[in-house]
Every structure is written in structure tokens, then in C-alpha cells.
Amino acid sequence: MSTDTPALSPARALATAGRVLRQLRHDPRTVALLLIVPVLMITLLRYVFDDGPGTFDAVGASLLGIFPLITMFLVTSIATLRERTSGTLERLLALPLGKGDLIAGYALAFGAVAVAQSLLATAMSVWVLGLDVVGSPWLLLLVALLDALLGTALGLFVSAFAASEFQAVQFMPAVIFPQLLLCGLFTPRDRMHPVLETVSDLLPMSYAVDGMNQVLTHTEVTADFRRDILVVAGCALLVLCLGAATLRRRTT
């Protein structure tokens, strides 16, 4: 039985990222889910709110961060689980490849996809659909990218606890829906019951939405915005580390 390579190797991580990207290139349905569906959903919402002036501006920035997080969570959790159930993961870890190399490779690969996804969604929202943003659109892009990376990290983490692709999808109501309900999208968090407000303060999606709203309403980078992106980035890094610690070679 082989042991995990203790040191994280950039070369091995990049090789893993290249392999994942090559696999994605031959899977047009997954590429469409990652790149096109968020754009279509934001476009649909733009015209759903067409008769309500200012409504799309109020929720569009928040959704620009939420959609990438959800799609990256789904695709990453299922893709990682598929590699484990097919035996690919076990064969890879029999090589001089540590769990950290594997997780870093996946994060790099899906991070590259997240960049493309965030660019498309942000460009569509701001320059085509007319999302009214007071701050810099590049700050919107930054938050959307961090949200997508958080979704990737969460997907890698929960895949360790699923025995099938169906179970991986079942984690979405447990991991994503509570954050979606408590992030402030439907009602301001300070108007929630104190217990729910406290819970929302512990959930990273709340800071993702707050960060988007900071860009929406402030011309300058605020202290709250810096706090929000640091929390989202820190949560993504923490969950990636947990994903490396809980990664299993195969599903029993």
C-alpha cells in the first residue's frame, strides 16, 4: 500500500489540473452547465423583473455571486465522487501523488473555469443587461470568482461523505439551501429573528452577498468589503484543507 506524499508539489498539482481540464473539454454538457447556465439564469431574472424598475439592480449583484457558487458546488462534488467510485482516484493516489496535490489540482482546474464563468456572468450582467453598479465591475468579478472557488471547495469537501452521485446532489439542500435562505437575499439579515441572524453571521454566503451589495452601493472599497472578501476567501481555503484531510481513495 502506498502512502500519501507529504509535501505539496506545484508540478503534480498542475499536472492534475491539466488532466481535469482535458476531461472537461470532452464533456460539453458540464461545460454548458458551468459557463452558460449562470448567464442564462441571470438573463431570465433580468426579464422576470422587467416591470419592476430597480428590482434587478437590487438582487442582480447578489445572484451574480450565488449562481457560480451553486453550479461549482454541484459539478465539483459529482466530478470528484465519480473519480472515486470509478477507481480513478485510487489509481492516482497509488502514484507519487498526495491528497494535497489532488485537491490543489482540482482547485486550480475548477478555479480556471470559475474565472471564465465569472467573466461571462459579470460582463453579461453589467454591459448587456444593464446592472447598475456604483463601484467597479472588477470588484464584482472578484467576489463572483471567490464565490465560485468557495463552491468548488464545498463540493470537494462534501464528496467525501457521499457514496453515489445521487447522494452528492442530496447534500445541496443541507449545505446550500440554508445559506441561500439566510444570506440576506430575501430579507435583510438585521430584520431576521436574532437566532437566525446569528446563524447567518456564521455562513460564508452571507458575506458573499454583503460583498456584492457593497460594490453595488459604494464607489470606494470599504472596510466591510475587505472583511467580506477575506471571510469568503478564508472559508474557501479552510474547506479545501478539510477536503484534503477527508479525501478517501474509494467509496466502500
Automatic annotation (TrEMBL):
Q: Which residues form a coiled coil?
A: none
What membrane topology does this protein have? Multi-pass membrane protein
Indicate the transmembrane segments per the record: 31-49, 61-81, 102-126, 138-161, 168-187, 229-247
Pfam families noted in UniProt? ABC2_membrane
Domain of life assignment: Bacteria
Q: Boundaries of each ABC transmembrane type-2 domain copy?
A: 29-250
This protein's major location comes to: membrane
- What keyword terms does UniProt attach to this protein? Antibiotic resistance, Cell membrane, Membrane, Transmembrane, Transmembrane helix, Transport
* Record localization: Cell membrane
Record-linked PANTHER family: MEMBRANE COMPONENT OF ABC TRANSPORTER YHHJ-RELATED, TRANSPORT PERMEASE PROTEIN
Provide the family line. Belongs to the ABC-2 integral membrane protein family.
| Name of this protein | Transport permease protein
